[in-house]
Design brief:
Structural class of chain B: mainly beta
Strand content of chain B: over 45%
Number of strands of chain A: 10
Largest sheet of chain B: 5 strands, antiparallel
Largest interface: A-B, 33 and 62 residues
CATH topology of chain B: Immunoglobulin-like
Shape of chain A: elongated
Distance between the termini of chain A: 82 Å
Number of strands of chain B: 13
Structural class of chain A: mainly beta
Number of helices of chain B: 1
Strand order of the largest sheet of chain B: 1-4-11-8-9
Radius of gyration of chain A: 34 Å
Oligomer: heterodimer
Number of domains of chain A: 1
Helix content of chain A: 10-25%
Strand content of chain A: 35-45%
Number of domains of chain B: 1
């Protein structure tokens, strides 16, 4: 009986030793990323047609630094971006509308438009931000008031979207 | 009773070297997952076969089956506690019996995976993933920890 008891104890210890061999271990590594500067877009200047007269089309060129619409973009330096636009087909004044057509665009790295590149806003563009992370975008268009266009202030929204 | 005690103690002492004789399993983190420069709004994918940017663990252990299980982070943490989502696909982890990044068996890091250790007792696990920065993701350095647990199966 004594031997049996002893055998059980020894067997239990051996089994314990065997169970310890079913072992595990672990290690860790690190995932790292460096997020670059987010894009910021500012509507810096309105596209301004000024006074227009019924029956007389009026064009503001994208190269017009005074009246052309301008967006200022900032982001990660020297990084390509994609420009896309939502362009209204009409301007509105209350219930009255006036066609706006023939959009033009220029993008440049300087606010002076020096070295600017013409593009079609309807097609979009893929310029690269400057070494300081800047980009300037101008938009022009033509309004076509009808001969019986109702007088008033007509407005519409040009939306530019910029993504990396 | 005294004699029994000696026998038991002897068995215990014997038991220790017996356990030590079993080849222990060890896991070593060799290389982290490097997403590098990430642009807001642009997902960045690192493949497990990417020799420079994929993560790597080396395993040493006895020949036989082992169970691999990851603790995967859902996000990376950046400046001021900013979070950036991390995702892992169904084949973003790979097991290599030859420790070669070019010879892996893909598996889902979100599920436990049973792998066979080779005769030489050395293997590697590679891991990739996708960082998903928001369009307004705060700029800065982001990190997360990936843990691999390895259990020797009986």
């Amino acid at each position: 009986m004594r031997i049996t008891k002893l055998s059980l104890v020894v067997a239990a210890l051996v089994l314990t030793g065997t169970a310890l061999q079913a072992q595990s271990n672990n290690a860790s590594i690190t995932a790292t990323a460096s997020v670059q500067t987010p894009i910021n877009v500012l509507g810096a200047q309105q596209l301004n047609f000024g006074n227009v007269f019924p029956g007389v089309n009026k064009t503001v060129n994208a190269t017009d630094l005074t009246n052309g619409g301008r967006f200022d973009v900032t982001g990660q330096a020297s990084t390509p971006v994609t420009l896309s636009f939502t362009l209204p087909a009409t301007l509105s004044s209350g219930g009255n509308t006036m066609p706006i057509v023939s959009y033009t665009g220029v993008h440049a790295l300087l606010a002076t438009q020096v070295g600017g590149v013409a593009f079609s806003p309807a097609a979009g563009a893929t310029p690269t931000l400057s070494g300081t992370g800047a980009l300037f975008v101008w938009v022009g268009a033509q309004v076509q008031p009808a001969t019986n266009q109702v007088a008033g202030v007509y407005t519409g929204s040009v939306v530019m979207t910029v993504v990396y | 009773m005294r004699r029994e005690s000696w026998i038991v103690m002897g068995t215990m002492l014997l038991g220790v070297p017996l356990v030590a004789q079993g080849k222990p399993v060890t896991v070593t983190g060799i290389r982290g997952v490097t997403f590098g420069a990430v642009l807001p709004g642009v997902p960045r994918v690192v493949l497990r076969t990417d020799p420079a940017n994929s993560g790597q663990f080396d395993i040493k252990g006895p020949k036989g089956n082992v169970l691999l299980s990851f603790v995967m982070p859902l996000t990376m943490t950046g400046p001021a506690g900013a979070q950036m989502p991390l995702t892992f696909g169904a084949s973003d982890a790979g097991y290599s019996q030859t420790q070669s990044i070019g010879s892996q068996v893909g598996f889902d890091p979100k599920q436990p995976f049973t792998a066979a250790m080779p005769n030489n007792g050395r293997a590697s696990v590679f891991v990739g993933g996708t960082a998903n920065p928001a369009t307004n993701q705060r700029a800065g350095a982001y990190t997360a920890t990936i843990i691999l647990n390895v259990t020797v199966l009986p």
